Task: structure prediction
Amino acid sequence: MEIADALAARVRVSLVAVASLGLAMSVGLAACDGTSGDAVGPTAGDPGHLQRIDALEYDRSIQRSLGVTLSNDDRLSLIGSDSDVTPAEYQRHFDRVQVLVSNVFADPALRGRILTCTPATDVDSACTQTIIRQFGAVAWQRPVSDAEVSQLLTVAASATSLGNDFPGSVQQVVKTMMISAPFLYRVQGV
Result:
């Protein structure tokens, strides 16, 4: 029975990770205006362009968001100089975020930096929304839109329906936000 329970738990985690990746991609695509890289500059009416964060900003973003300092191995998860994240770089980033966020949620002090309110129940959407807005403002370096909050609340609800408690559902939301385009890119020239 222990093996079956362990397998079921892994399947739940995998399903949430797949759902989170799908949401991260949709949030990222919704933020994308179709351009990337080092554009010459905005023109009249131009909504700006997406600029990939560099290695230094990546380090700082992880530090600000999760409260951890990256090791040399962690730094290798997304080191590139061009404007596009390659599939291999994204996979390393995805894998690294899974480990980093799991480690953060295993540490009570670091987890407390993210879980800034006490939920009334495991499905306390008001508390979850507060966390999304606070964490998102730091991780994405901009306010989280109402539409993005709604999408991320769906991730939390899915995680809860798969058996995660409140911290577990928020952990999935944090992973989703950390692997999304708004974490890896900034809008420039607006």
Summary: Strands lie at 49-52, 185-188. Residues 7 and 150 are 30 Å apart (CA to CA). The chain is about 65% helix and 5% strand. The longest strand covers residues 49-52.
